[in-house]
Every structure is written in C-alpha cells, then in structure tokens.
Design goal:
208 residues, alpha/beta
C-alpha cells in the first residue's frame, strides 16, 4: 500500500471519530465558519495550529508561511487578514512563532540558501536592527530563541500597521493582536507579553 493511502484511511477514522463525538458536526460545519481567532504561524510541520490549542475545525482561521512573517507586499497574507477581520470578524489575531525555527536559523547563519534568501531578508533586516542585543548573547541556541521572539514581536507590529487592522480599529471593531511562541521540546505556548488592541496601543509602541 502506498504511504499516501494511509492518509485516506486516517481521514476516514478521524471523520468517524468526530461524528461519534458530535453527530451532525460536518453538516453544521459546512453551512458556515465563525472562528474568533486568526492564527499566523510557521509552515513547520511540527506546529499544527488547531491541534496544539485544542480547537476543532471551524474555530481557528489559519495562515502559515516560512518563519511566520507578515510582509506588507504579501497579498496572500494580507488577503487572509482582510477576510478574517472584515468578513469573519475575528476578535483575536495570534502571531505564533516557534523555537528551533529553520527560517530563523537560516537567516542567522549567513549562508546562501537560494530563492528563500529573498524572503529571509525580512528577518535579516531585523537582525541588523537588533544586532547589539543579539551579539550580546554568547550561546547560539539562546540567540536563535531570542530572534524567534523578536521576530514574533516584529510581526505583531506589522499586523497592527496594516490598513486592514487600522481601519477596523477606527470603525470601533474589537481586534487584539497577540505575540506567542511555541516550544517544540515541551509542546507549550508562551505569551511574549505584547498585545495590541487599539490605535492608541500602536501609537504608544511607536513612541517607545
């Protein structure tokens, strides 16, 4: 049996298990989605968004890319963000990075990695801005972990600075943007402490 056939078997078992737990679940789900959360995370296969926060299908809207970046020229990410805020009316946008991120490590190592270097330049700009702090960390793993955290915080501010979020705040829509990081070694999420919920929060951050 080809390995991919196992995916169909697993799918059938999963759907059966869900229906045993919640009869009519898929019929109800097919009629609408009403998540309160948008998850912007890394493409890494070890970070399954719904699973690590214990949410069912329909409860978490998800966008993933290498190193969980929010780039203002990335129409894919911005389209997801606009749909989540303007149509789905999510109340929370979660930017979640993870320790041991390959994209972060590649941005740090100074080597050429081909096409992805163009994407990683967004992180390398951050490395340049935070050079004093990062160079002051002797342990390479701790330096990588800190860059993971700094990257998440940077992406939270990038989300807040989009016209999508600022327009939502200006019309009184409640949207909060959160900074999280996930530990591959223990499966736990950590709140990095930066949450932006208004134009005032963003302006206060910009003035620091």
């Amino acid at each position: 049996m080809p390995k991919y056939d196992l995916l169909f078997e697993n799918n059938q078992k999963w759907a059966k298990r869900i229906l045993e737990q919640k009869p009519g679940f898929f019929e109800e789900l097919s009629q609408q989605q009403a998540p309160e959360f948008l998850w912007i995370g890394c493409s890494d296969s070890r970070v399954p968004a719904n699973e690590i926060v214990g949410l069912m299908p329909g409860e978490l809207f998800v966008h993933r890319n290498v190193a969980n970046l929010v780039v203002h020229t990335d129409m894919n990410c911005l389209s997801v963000l606009q749909f989540a805020i303007d149509v789905l009316k999510v109340k929370h946008v979660i930017v979640c990075g993870h320790y041991g991120c390959g994209g972060i490590n590649a941005a740090l190592d100074g080597n050429s990695h081909g096409l992805i270097d163009n994407w990683l330049n967004n992180i390398r700009d951050l490395i340049h801005r935070k050079a004093d702090e990062l160079n002051g960390i002797d342990d390479s793993e701790q330096r990588q972990d800190r860059l993971c955290e700094l990257n998440v915080i940077n992406q939270v501010t990038n989300v807040a600075r989009t016209t999508i979020v600022k327009d939502a705040w200006n019309r009184g829509q409640k949207v909060s943007i959160h900074s999280w990081v996930y530990g591959l070694s223990d499966g736990l999420i950590r709140d990095l402490g930066l949450t932006l919920s208004s134009i005032d929060d963003l302006n206060e951050l910009n003035n620091k």
